Amino acid sequence: MARINLLPWREELRAERKKQFTLNLVGVAMVAVLALVGADRLENSRIENQKQRNAYLEQNIAKLDEKVAEIRDLQKKRVQLIERMRIIQELQGTRPVIVRILDQLVRTLPDGVFYTELTTEEGMITIQGVAESNNRVSSLMRRLDASEWLQDPNLDAVVAAPEFGDQAATFTLTVGVQLAKEGEANGESDA
Question: TM spans, by residue (predicted)?
Fold first, then answer.
């Protein structure tokens, strides 16, 4: 015998499907919310991790900046020390030359001429003095010109000085200095 169901089964099936759909929809929504919360937490943990890494890098950068500043300061001090050493070596190298030049100034001084002031500046010596006559000044200039350590004497001024005598004159002249003599540059000396 055939079974015929006259109950409204389609409505029950529809209601069951609707209930199943609603449950599926709620389940998917819950899974989506959980996925969003999980993704948000994951992203927040990544952001926190990156912030910690940035803070660590900033601390190390600050330490390195201090070291770089210290290195720059040390390099500046090194340059200053090298410059001082160069000046000292230059002075040590020219020390015997200065003695030779002063010796030449004394040796070239004729009788009747007196130096009152000597000044040096960049390889030039300015001499001020008193001479008994103009001829003595000329003799001084010839002797300076003949010197192997002095060169190019140039008379700047001659003024009569009656307080020192009838023909006396005060004079100012400049003379060049030869700092590098061949024997001195090689460390040899005449003494």
Answer: 21-39
Asked if residue 168 lies in contact with residue 111, where contact means CB atoms within 8 angstroms, the answer is: no
* Tokens read off for 125: 């010596």
| DSSP codes joined into one string, 44-78 | HHHHHHHHHHHHHHHHHHHHHHHHHHHHHHHHHHH
Tell me what the mean pLDDT of segment 71-98 comes to.
Answer: 89
| Alpha carbon 173 to chain centroid, angstroms | 40
Angstrom CA distances, 53 to 61, 63, 92, 177, 183, stand at 12, 15, 57, 67, 68
| 180 — pLDDT class (breaks 50, 70, 90) | low
Residue 73 has pLDDT above 80, yes or no: yes
CB distance 97 to 181 below 8 Å:
yes
